[in-house]
Amino acid sequence: MEVMYQSTRGKGDLVTASQAILKGLSDDGGLFVPTQIPRLDIPMEKLSRMTYQETAYEVMSRFLTDFTEDELKYCIRSAYDEKFDTDKIAPIHQADGAYFLELYHGATIAFKDMALSILPYLMTTAAKKNGVTNEIVILTATSGDTGKAAMAGFADVPGTRIIVFYPKHGVSPVQEKQMVTQKGKNTYVVGITGNFDDAQTAVKKMFNDKDLENLLGSAGFQFSSANSINIGRLVPQIVYYVYAYSTLIRQGSIKEGEKINIVVPTGNFGNILAAFYAKQMGLPVNKLICASNENKVLYDFFATGTYDRKRDFILTTSPSMDILISSNLERLIFRLTGEDPAACAKLMEELSKGGEYTITPQMKAGLSDFYGNYCTEKETSEAIHQVFEKDHYVIDTHTAVAAGVYKKYKADTKDDTPTVIASTASPYKFTRSVMEAISSDSETMDDFALADALAKLSGTSVPKAVEEIRTAPVLHDCVVDAQDMPATVKKILGIC
Ligand SMILES: *Cc1c(COP(=O)(O)O)cnc(C)c1O
């Protein structure tokens, strides 16, 4: 059965999976969605004996149907290898009455690695299949995590180059150090003097600049995106929810067919949408619990049916969830409209013009798969403290938002369904906030001293990703004004 992809705002034109991955975003501004969600038609008894890589093949081959078995297995093998510090790839840790699904064992110790380690292979394979001979140039604006994970994925991948722009004064010291020490002949990191929005706006402008596209084309280049709107990032994220379920079966924690809840700390709505797709495939899932920090647009949306981005942007200790426009929600909205691209486009236009939209009562009824709540900064810190006190297990700030919301869910509903919490970053990535929650003498330490202190206190070891940047030489020191970004790209590609 061939799965094709259509735009959430389009006229129903269909593209193959590989074309959707190459394009990233549809020309009409919509996101690509599968025309149908394939069934997970494999006996659980068989799934529960599979490795992560084997599970990945079963799930991804059902969505990316124009990839051959050899192509897909090559991509999976190349992505999920020794870059991960455990051969389980996504292990489960039981603590404080829940199962924490650790998605941070890849190269940059955040869950972005789960998809960004395979995207480069999917993309270069897609280019080959579609006869693209141009070198692919990935342009990315980052507020910290995505840029590093994308570079780690694309570094030295033949046929690609990656250029990352980050706000020079808007990322944490560890995040900046991670980026400016990035190795690889095809990686370029540029600080800009503006903020993240300036970088993002300039990147989007370059994507839509026809003259630049022609200039690039005549020099043998074309742009693509590693952003979370790419279907090539979404599909690999479905895998670990299936794998989590089969792991729980294998270790005897649940019985075949028994339902689980899944809690996801949410920003752009990509990770939780993958869990929703897993449920649509037939994975026995009860509630999808959407956890927000103080930027609680989604909580308000689930409660009222109105999505309203007109509010202050709050900087929190879970920065990867500081977001007011959750792009991937559009894919759920499209489903709720009964797959009506005109209705979906209208709501998205209301959002971009007036800053809000309201769904119909009928659409709202379709949200019953979800439960939404949020944590304040204080509650987030308390959640880290509590899990550590109870089970000597350290979670990061983003995961803590999920753990805190799960507490609220249990209190609200008395539901005791076995629950998986997506653990999206290593505590070593947000060491200062984590240490402040579990120790009283962290204030005077620098970030590396804090990592050592965390290791001592928790009995875990400092991950390679942090050790590496301690002494790594700075390889990128370019800083430009946002307005000079296009000129910088041309210079990097040698086409000025
Ligand atoms: C990106 C990110 C999130 C949010 O994931 P979405 O798919 O954008 O909802 C949560 N936690 C961490 C650590 C992240 O890097």
Write a compact overview of the structure shown.
The protein is an alpha/beta fold and 496 residues long. It has helices spanning 17-23, 44-47, 52-63, 69-79, 112-116, 119-129, 145-154, 173-180, 196-207, 210-218, 231-250, 270-281, 297-304, 329-336, 341-354, 361-365, 377-391, 397-413, 431-438, 447-458, 464-471, 485-493, and strands at residues 5-7, 32-34, 92-95, 98-102, 135-141, 160-167, 187-192, 221-224, 260-265, 285-292, 306-308, 356-358, 370-374, 419-423, 478-480. Helices cover 45% and strands 15% of the residues.
Structure description:
The chain is of the alpha/beta class. It has a domain at 92-109 and 233-467: Rossmann fold (3-Layer(aba) Sandwich). Helix content is 45%, strand content 15%. It contains 22 helices and 15 strands. It has helices spanning 17-23, 44-47, 52-63, 69-79, 112-116, 119-129, 145-154, 173-180, 196-207, 210-218, 231-250, 270-281, 297-304, 329-336, 341-354, 361-365, 377-391, 397-413, 431-438, 447-458, 464-471, 485-493; strands spanning 5-7, 32-34, 92-95, 98-102, 135-141, 160-167, 187-192, 221-224, 260-265, 285-292, 306-308, 356-358, 370-374, 419-423, 478-480. It has a six-stranded mixed sheet, sandwiched between helices. A five-stranded parallel sheet has the order 8-5-6-7-15, with helices on both faces. The longest helix is centred in the middle third of the chain and has 20 residues, at 231-250. The protein is globular. It starts with a strand and ends with a helix. The model has no long low-confidence stretch (mean pLDDT 94). Pyridoxal-5'-phosphate (PLP) binds at residues 110-112, 145, 228, 265-271, 320-321, 398, 424-425.
